Amino acid sequence: METLEIKNLKVAIDHKPILNGVSLTVAPGEVHAIMGPNGSGKSTLAQTLFRHPKYEVAGGTMRFGRAKLNEMTTDKIAQTGMLLAFQYPQSVSGVSVQNLLKVAQSVRGERVSVDTFVKNLKQKAKSMRLPAEFLTRSLNEGFSGGEKKKAEILQLAMLAPKLVVLDETDSGLDVDALKIVGREVNKLKKNGVSVIIITHYNRVLKYIEPDFVHIMYHGRIIKSGRKDLAHTIEKGGYNQFIKTKQKG
Ligand SMILES: Nc1ncnc2c1ncn2[C@@H]1O[C@H](COP(=O)(O)OP(=O)(O)OP(=O)(O)O)[C@@H](O)[C@H]1O
Ligand SMILES: [Mg+2]
């Protein structure tokens, strides 16, 4: 398994600086939670890791094992085993969950017979309490907010990734769905998969135990700690860290 290594990453959108030097190392099997106020650059970091064309890399390096992400396109990055669950999953008319996953698997060179694939997919969906008809509907079209998030998790469970980035996957989920997400993520962790979870809420960290918690503010990681940092944030908000930062 590979280590993700981000060093002094600077990112701009339309020449406006958004990330101002982010460094982060995620070893195999580690769970890192990234928290921080709205607009601090969390989704920007996620999108940049996958080289979304809107985000200009103005400096720094991103590597996943030997793969130099700076020089790669999104489809090549997907082939390394990195996977992003979006904050706002898009609808794709005419493409079903089932078809999407089948294509995604074959792009990554996994050869599984259609029968086996569909059987596995149905089992997985059932364990996540998603009805079978869900798999043949157009992706995310008319899905409820929580169903979209579940479809993202289903993809994680099916695609055997090496590193996943969950951008607010927990937002809008009911407590049962939250537990299911927790269960799937913990399975990934056990298998040595690295996890970056971007979240505003402590409640998801009840089900997903983070090894590290980072606070992002104005495009920088201003504080890193263990799980208890999330509790400190919940009690006292972000101001306590921002003030310290300004003084020091
Ligand atoms: N296309 C864009 N054009 C201009 N500014 C942008 C664009 N996309 C993002 N930004 C700005 O970049 C900053 C960081 O946004 P980002 O989405 O990374 O924040 P976030 O930490 O994920 O916030 P949230 O917690 O609300 O999801 C914000 O100030 C946002 O307005
Ligand atoms: Mg965001």
UniProtKB/TrEMBL annotation:
* One matching Pfam family: ABC_tran
Q: Does the keyword Ribosomal protein apply?
A: no
Q: Does the keyword Nucleotide-binding apply?
A: yes
Q: Tell me where the signal peptide lies.
A: none
Single GO molecular function: ATP hydrolysis activity
What sequence ranges are listed for the domain ABC transporter?
4-243
InterPro entries in the record, alphabetically? AAA+_ATPase, ABC_transporter-like_ATP-bd, ABC_transporter-like_CS, FeS-cluster_ATPase_SufC, P-loop_NTPase
Q: Which UniProt keywords apply?
A: ATP-binding, Nucleotide-binding
Identify its protein family. Answer: Belongs to the ABC transporter superfamily. Ycf16 family.
The protein's name is Fe-S cluster assembly ATPase SufC
Species: Candidatus Doudnabacteria bacterium RIFCSPHIGHO2_01_FULL_50_11
